[in-house]
Structures are given as structure tokens and as C-alpha cells.
Write a structure and sequence with these properties.
Length: 416
Amino acid sequence: MDITAKSKTLNLKLDVEAIRKDFPILQTTVWGKPLVYFDNAATSQKPFVVLNAIEEYYKETNSNVHRGIHYLSNKATDQFEQSRKIIAAHLNASPEEIIYTRGTTEAINLVAFSFGEAFIKEGDEIIVSQMEHHSNIVPWQMLCERKKAVLKVIPITEEGELKLDGFKKLLSPKAKLVAVTHVSNTLGTINPVEEIIEAAHAKNIPVLLDGAQAAPHMKIDVKKLDVDFYCFSGHKTFGPTGIGILYGKAKWLNEMPPYQGGGEMIRKVTLDKTTYNEPPLRFEAGTPNIEASIVLAKAINYINQIGLDAIAKHEHELLLYATDKLQKINGLKIIGTAKHKTSVVSFVVEGTHPSDIGMLLDKQGIAVRTGHHCTQPLIDFYKIPGTVRASLAFYNTFEEINIFVKALNKAIDMLK
Ligand code: ALA
């Protein structure tokens, strides 16, 4: 099926029923009910093209990369580096600026350690926001402890938007890095990253964007953004777990020391002294996740074939539909009502606990996440125990939202 041609002729309209057939798990049942998978912000489901590529890799290619002169090792290395080129082109970056990591978390830890070693000293400030995932808070806190630096926090509004005036006030000469999320995993807020980058760069402060929740939903152009570091996870982008991408501007990567020591990251090792490889290999010590690195490019090709514009349009329509239906439920309050959102709806229901609702939805075949979503400071800001979060992907349907709303009403009736 030529999905691209289809979405073009249908004016960006996705053939969702055809797309769903690409995802075998979407045809399964849970507790005897058809699965409604609304936990895409936690991890996405995988299409056949990804599942088949995993099997194919182990059947036909499996070998170590950059190490052998034999046929299979060269084949694996070619595919591994070809995948890096596809991912680089997808982000509009150069392959040398693309580092394979275990995921977004490791990518941020890599920058916190390595950029921190090179550029952060006592009294410097790192700026994060109130809506960050723990993985974009804790590595910076650890860096601050190590270097006696200071963490500063961009405040947010009740709607879940960054307070840009507050942000601009933090851009003092002591600020050495801004690390913010592109899209909030709990609220769905799409942050005004262009404005953030422009304001930070006006003061010569580099910016890292946590793109874990953005990459599955929108086109990312790191050159156009002029962002210094950008990271995302394979498993949230319809690819395998255990793989992530760190994009870093060459001017920073060239100046940053290795994050881990081991094979591949060296130029020459003697027992007295070791010299290091150029980026990206300098940051890829040890045998990488070869299979997932290769297969991630298949997932990227798959979403590009469908078209990220068509994906964004369908998901926006789902968001509006779900928001409208949920708003009509008595006692339900949506947490995160920013003007610009991806397809995430978080909510609380008066007189109920999020985890009770989550369990009752599960029994009706519906997968949502409940709790703090690894954003405790954000949940504390709202003074709530957590939320129920429905996070939608391009393979979700309006009919699934109807099923979800009906099941939610039933759950609320049981709990009240
Ligand atoms: N960070 C992922 C989520 O938001 C796991 O659920």
C-alpha cells in the first residue's frame, strides 16, 4: 500500500483502518475485550515493518559493527551507519552529529555528564522547567551537585504553558544551558521552542530539547530550530526499545569528553594514556544495540511514508474530539489546557483516584497510564495525586474514543 500517495490524494486524510492492519497488537484482545491502546506516550506499538526487520537482522545480518573484516560484520556496519544517515536526514542533521544511545534518558545523562565536565563550573546555572520529566531534571541535579552549580526553574501557568517572561528573567550571565521539553508527556503542551532558543541564543546560552514526546508526532528540523542538543527515544517513535538518539551540534560534540570508556570510543590505548575517537564514536563505548539502531530507521521510514503532516492532522482531530467528550463528564477536570497540544489528555475526576479509574478501564480493554508520569514536580504544582492520561497515536480512532468515554463513565459510576 502506498500510504503517502493515499494521504496526498485524500488531502492528508489517513486511511486509519489500513494503517491499523500494520500493527498486529491492535488486533488483540485484553480481558476478552478488543484492545484500546491509549498509552502511546509511555511506549508506542510496532508495525510489521519493524517486527520483520528485527527478525531479518538476526536471521541474515547479526554480527558486531566496526570490528570485523568478515562479510557479516561489514554488512552489519553498513546497515548501522546507513541507519544513522537516515536518522540524520530525518532530523536535517549530519551523521557525525547523531549519537546512538539507549534512549532519551541516556542522551540527557550523556550531555549532563559530558557537557557538564567541559563547560559547567561552580556557581553556573542550568535552566529547566516545572513541567520536565524526571529524566530532564535528575541528571542536571546530579551535575549541579558534582559541580556546585545551581538549578533554575521556568515557572508555568495553570493551563500548563511556560511563563516566557519568567524564563527570560532567568537568562543571566550565570546561565550556561537551558534544558526543556519540546512536548510535555503529562500535559501534551507543545512548548514555543523557537522562541526559547532565540532568547537563549541571544545571550549565547545553548539549548537542549527533550524531544521524546515530540518526535512521534511532528517533523523535527534541528537546523531550522538551531537547537544545540535534541534527543528522542526509538520505542516511542514506533521502533524498538533500548535505542535513542542524541543530536548535538558538532561544535559542542567536538569539545566534549567521552561519557563512558571502552571499545570503539578510542583512537589509541596504551597503559599510560588513551586518546579518543571523533564524535559520534567517541560517545558510543562498547557494543551498541545494533539491531535496534538498524530497525529504528525502518520505523522512521514508515512514519515518513505515512507523512508527519497527515499524522499531526489526524491526531489533532482526535485530541479535539476526546477533549470535547471528556469535558462533558461531570466532575472531570482536564489537567493541561495549553493552546498548542499534541494528542495527550490528562485528567482527574472529583471523588476518585486516578489508579482506580485506570484499573477499571483496564478491565474494559483500555490501556491508559495513571499516576505522576515521572513528572512529580508538575503533579505537585497542581496539588493532585496524579492524573489519568490518555495518549493517542495516529492508529487510534474516533470509535475508540467513544468506547473509552463509555468505559470511563461506567468506571466513575462504580467509584462514586
Ligand atoms: N516517559 C514515559 C511516559 O510519559 C514513560 O509515560
